[in-house]
């Protein structure tokens, strides 16, 4: 075993080999653990700007050195915002020659000497970007959802395995897993406080989100990229893009259980204009798990309706509510979390950077892929109007991505019609 020859070599070195290198060369790992970690941001929107801020606050020796966005105006807007934040301004060193745009910008960013990459584009690009980042030996913060179709899920599972082999970090943006009140609640469920879980009912009933699109033509790459939320190839539809948080919490409670089948209904009643692409605005789906366990999910995004975001977990001996952090055994004393609740978005980065420094990088990749897959499974059941088995679903090789990423005309896929749509 030879010692790492450079800081870059060290940072790309696996936890396992880093530990081995330390043993071979006393002090090498400890010294390298003090190095500045150079961060690159891919996808400079709202979340990316937030994630960069959190990364810069996570560790004293972190610098933001490179940025990439499909659109230079988005990148410059984010950079300007970050430079205005007093406590992190001194950690920003993004020279103009490390600002990259276009579809290949991520490749240039990965080659620009970064150690940690924040992947915060629309999820349609995540599998591609994640694979490239992991292959390049970078530690990754990777927003949710991590894919929009089955080939994407499979690619992320492979990337997660590769990151494990390389010993590089892969922290996912399924942020509720980094929220202490949820951790305590799930710990109690896993500890048997409500007996065996037999059903989960999760809701994501909210109002609409941003609407950036007024100017047609809609059937262009630029329109769809700037209004990505409304196009399934980019967002996965809102059941995948937003409700995936509930599927992730269910996946966490059910310890990664693989469902047997899914059924669902859905459609669009309020977002019917052409500028809203091809996504639905409501879904209600049921996932069946082995042993008769069921996950009932409902999500809606419509104005002037009641909002409710929660996860009700039903066990043989009681109930729990994840968003209220309560555990109520039948006939027993109810528990409610009353400790501190740090900002989960900050905790994600604190734990990622600490794990990298410690040589034991976090790897959330496979769990994140499965959570995203559950949401895609529910979506496909509703789109198709069929009772879909996991086996059929997971055999799908249908990629939603266009054949090529290029500016210019891009037809919009039709709104899925149950009974007509093919998985
Ligand atoms: N964990 C959470 O609570 C949370 C909250 C908000 C958003 N998110 C996730 O973060 C991601 C981004 O959401 P957002 O709200 O920041 O959206 P946004 O539109 O504000 O930002 C996305 C940015 O990515 C850029 N982009 C698109 N394609 C690109 C490509 N191929 N290469 C480089 N840049 C590209 C866009 O131009 C845009 O600037 C989504 O996956 C979303 O689900 C997570």
Topology:
Layout: H1 7-12, H2 15-24, H3 28-32, E1 37-42, H4 46-58, E2 62-69, H5 72-83, H6 86-89, E3 99-101, H7 105-110, E4 116-119, H8 126-135, E5 139-142, H9 150-166, E6 170-172, H10 180-190, E7 197-206, H11 221-226, H12 232-235, H13 238-241, H14 244-253, E8 261-267, E9 282-288, E10 294-301, E11 308-315, E12 318-321, E13 326-329, E14 335-336, H15 344-357, H16 365-384, E15 388-389, H17 390-394
Parallel strand pairs: 1-2, 1-4, 2-3, 4-5, 5-6, 7-10
Antiparallel strand pairs: 7-11, 8-9, 8-15, 9-10, 11-12, 12-13, 13-14
Can you give a write-up of this model?
By secondary structure, this protein is an alpha/beta fold. It has 2 domains: 7-176 and 347-363, NAD(P)-binding Rossmann-like Domain (Rossmann fold), CATH 3.40.50.720; 180-341 and 372-394, Dihydrodipicolinate Reductase, domain 2 (2-Layer Sandwich). The chain contains 17 helices and 15 strands. Strands 14-13-12-11-7-10-9-8-15 form a 9-stranded mixed β-sheet. Strands 3-2-1-4-5-6 form a 6-stranded parallel β-sheet, sandwiched between helices. α4 crosses α5 (72-83) and α8 (126-135) runs parallel beside α9. It starts with 6 loop residues before the first helix and ends in a 29-residue tail after the last helix. The chain binds nicotinamide-adenine-dinucleotide.
């Amino acid at each position: 075993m030879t010692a790492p020859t450079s800081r870059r070599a060290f940072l790309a070195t696996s936890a396992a080999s880093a530990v081995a290198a330390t043993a071979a060369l006393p002090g090498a790992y400890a010294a390298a653990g003090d190095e500045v970690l150079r961060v690159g941001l891919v996808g400079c929107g709202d979340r990316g700007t937030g994630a960069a801020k959190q990364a810069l606050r996570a560790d004293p020796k972190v610098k933001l050195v490179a940025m990439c966005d499909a659109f230079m105006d988005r990148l410059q807007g984010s950079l300007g915002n970050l430079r205005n934040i007093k406590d992190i301004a001194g950690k920003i060193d993004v020279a103009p020659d490390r600002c990259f745009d276009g579809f290949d910008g991520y490749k240039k960013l990965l080659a620009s000497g970064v150690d940690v990459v924040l992947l915060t584009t629309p999820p349609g690009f995540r599998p591609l970007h994640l694979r490239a980042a992991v292959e390049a030996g970078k530690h990754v913060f990777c927003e949710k959802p991590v894919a929009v179709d089955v080939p994407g899920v499979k690619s992320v599972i492979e990337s997660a395995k590769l990151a494990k082999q390389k010993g590089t970090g892969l922290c996912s943006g399924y942020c509720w897993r980094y929220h202490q009140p949820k951790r305590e609640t799930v710990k109690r469920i896993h500890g048997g406080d409500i007996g065996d879980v037999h059903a989960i009912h999760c809701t994501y009933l909210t109002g609409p989100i941003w609407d950036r699109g007024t100017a047609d033509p809609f059937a262009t790459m630029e329109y769809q990229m700037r209004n990505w939320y409304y196009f399934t190839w980019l967002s996965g539809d809102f059941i995948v893009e937003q409700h995936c948080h509930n599927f992730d919490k269910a996946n966490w409670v059910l310890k990664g259980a693989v469902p047997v089948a899914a059924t669902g209904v859905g459609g669009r009643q309020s977002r019917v204009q052409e500028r809203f692409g091809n996504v639905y605005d409501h879904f209600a789906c049921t996932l069946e798990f082995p042993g008769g366990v069921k996950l009932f999910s409902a999500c809606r995004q419509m104005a002037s309706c009641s909002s409710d975001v929660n996860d009700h977990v039903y066990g043989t001996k009681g109930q729990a509510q994840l968003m209220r952090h309560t555990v109520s055994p039948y006939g027993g004393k109810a528990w409610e979390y009353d400790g501190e609740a740090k900002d989960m978005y900050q905790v994600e980065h604190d734990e990622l950077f600490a794990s990298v420094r410690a040589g034991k990088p976090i790897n959330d990749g496979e769990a994140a892929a499965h959570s995203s897959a559950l949401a895609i499974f529910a979506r496909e059941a509703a789109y198709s109007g069929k009772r879909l088995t996991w086996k059929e679903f997971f055999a799908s090789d249908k990629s939603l991505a266009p054949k090529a990423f290029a500016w210019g005309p891009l037809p919009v896929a039709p709104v899925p019609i149950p009974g007509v749509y093919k998985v």
